[in-house]
C-alpha cells in the first residue's frame, strides 16, 4: 500500500479482503487496483435501496466516499484506503465479516454509516471481540476509522504502530516463511490426527453395521475384496418361527402399529439370540429364521444352541406386551430341524447370506405344522439332542407334512 500511494496511481480505491491474495511463497499480493478509466461505471450503484447483498464491498469504503455518490464518480483516496485497511485488519483479528455478525444486514450498516445518529460517535464495527487482542491493533483501528479523513494516519505510521505484532519474528523473510510452514505443519498434523480418529470411529460403525448383516468370517472376506465361495455343511440346525393370527391382527391395525409391533418383538428376540452361538438369517414379515452350525462349525452343539434359544424365546414371548393391544397375548409357533445345507452370499447390492437345501424347507414345515407356544422338532433334531442330553420331549405322533 505504501508503494501504491507513492506511485503515479496514488491510491487503491477498492481495498478489501477478497483483493488480498496469498501466493505459494506466503506473500500477500494486492489485486484489483488501477485501470480506473477501464472500470469506469462498472460499479455504479445509483439507488442504495435496490442494492443486493453481493455489494458487501461497500462496507470497506470510507464514509466520505460513500456519501460522495457512485463509485465511478469518486474512485478513491489515500485516506479512504486507510479506512479500508482498518476493516481488513478487523476481519483478520476477529475472524468474522467486515462488521462482525451485524455485517449480514448490509443495507442497515450502510445507512448507519451514511447517516450517523451522533456525528461525534459514528457507527463502526464493534471492538468487543478484540478485548483479548493487542492494544496496538485496537488503537490503530480507532485511528483508521476516524470520521475526518485528515485525522487518519498514513501507511508508514500504521506500519510503525503495528510493529509489536512482529515481535519475535526473524528479520530474514525465508526464516519467517519456514517458521510459518512449521507452525502450519504442526496444525496440520493435529488436524490429521483428529480426522483420523473420526475416520476410525466411522470405520468401526461401518464394520459393526456389516457384522449385523453378515457373519463375521464372511464379512472379513468381503472387506478384503475376496469372493465368498458357497460352502456345503453336513449338519446344521435351523429355527423358524411365526406369529399365530398375525394376518388377522394386521387387518385390524394401522401400518404404523404393525411396524412398531414387529420392531418391538424383533428387538426383544435380537437381544436374546446374542447369548447363543447362532446367526440370524432373515426376517420376512412375522417369520423369524435363525441357524446354528455355520459358517463356523460347532460339532453337534448347534442343536443344543437352537433348542435352548427356542426355550428362551418362548419364555420371553409369555411376558411380551403388544403396545397397541395390551390385553392380548402373543402366540408364537416354533419349528426346528437339523440336516445338511449349502450356504453362500447372494447379490452385490445389499448382499445376503442365504441357505439352500431341503433342510430349510423341512424346518419351515416344522413351524407351519406346529402348535402355538410349542416347539415342534424333527426326528433328526431329537437324535442330536438325545446325544447331548438335558432336554425333555413329548411325542406328537405321525402327521402329514408336504
TrEMBL record:
Compartment list: Membrane
Enzymatic reactions: GTP = 3',5'-cyclic GMP + diphosphate
Chief place where the protein resides: membrane
Coiled coil: none
Lineage: superkingdom: Eukaryota
GO molecular function term, any single one: peptide receptor activity
Keyword Membrane: yes
E.C. number(s) listed in UniProt: 4.6.1.2
Bilayer topology term: Single-pass type I membrane protein
InterPro entries: A/G_cyclase, A/G_cyclase_CS, Cyclic_nucleotide_synthase, HNOB_dom_associated, Kinase-like_dom_sf, Nucleotide_cyclase, Prot_kinase_dom, Ser-Thr/Tyr_kinase_cat_dom
GO biological process: intracellular signal transduction; receptor guanylyl cyclase signaling pathway
SMART domains named in the record: CYCc
Keyword annotations: cGMP biosynthesis, Glycoprotein, GTP-binding, Lyase, Membrane, Nucleotide-binding, Receptor, Signal, Transmembrane, Transmembrane helix
CC annotations in GO: plasma membrane
Pfam family, one: Guanylate_cyc
PANTHER family in UniProt: GUANYLATE CYCLASE, GUANYLYL CYCLASE
Family: Belongs to the adenylyl cyclase class-4/guanylyl cyclase family.
Entry protein name: Guanylate cyclase
